[in-house]
Amino acid sequence: MEWKIRWAENGFVYNSETIILSERVILLDGSLTEEETAARPHVYNDIHKAFSGSELSQSGTEQVTVYLAPNVYWMDDPKAMDTMQKREGYSLPFGMYITGNKLNIIGLSENPEDVVIAGNRGQSHACNGNYTMIHFRVEELSISNLTIGNYCSVDLVYPLNPALNYPKRTETITQAQLAMQQGEKLHAQNCRFVSRLNLLPVCGARRALYQNCHFESTDDALNGNAVYIAVILIFTATDPFFRPQGRGRCSLTVCSAVRLRAATGKAISI
Questions:
Q1: What is d(CA 174, CA 166) in angstroms, rounded to the nearest whole number?
Q2: Is 202 left (phi over 0), alpha (psi -120 to 50) or beta?
Q3: pTM summary value
């Protein structure tokens, strides 16, 4: 079913609720034209413009909420053949840089497969270094109802609109990472994290909680400083954790189960 925005005065309607747009509430909808976004404040159709607009840069200590309509939002052209380099002052090459104090990112669907933030680069495949899609410099980050996926080594399958399916760049399992965070808190709920080697599902916060999330990867993949509740883990290799540390929680029983069953590629719920 194709997504179609229902506009309301000063906002839009979702699940019978009117969401008012403001300096602290914005909408990203990739199906909108430039004319439609220009006609309404706090509305974007480009992911880079949405996360670099005045709403985040001028938010101070207040929370900004970004709603994402169902679509596939690429970091850049998935066909790009240039070689990305890291920025000066950063340890990794990132596709996008997001800065703010408190940020809430919400997909407008109960199915996280409908809202996809996508990348298509990896180590030695259109990137010099371990390509990582997003760098968050955010103290308190909350994400829900969306997929973050690097499709360099895995096909993008988008059931809501198969015309947006996209084949993987390479058969090689390459280092193609998702996101890092400099900050205090991460809360991810009803999200999907998809890549292969070095998944990196928004790692770096001093406290991290994943609830009802899906992880799909190979080795050295998971956030070792996090608590996982009611998650689904799908691995095709034997070492999903590089190293549990800090506040990370993973019982020996669960780790053993993951290692014993990882090679089968079956889902493991914990």
A1: 17
A2: left
A3: 0.88
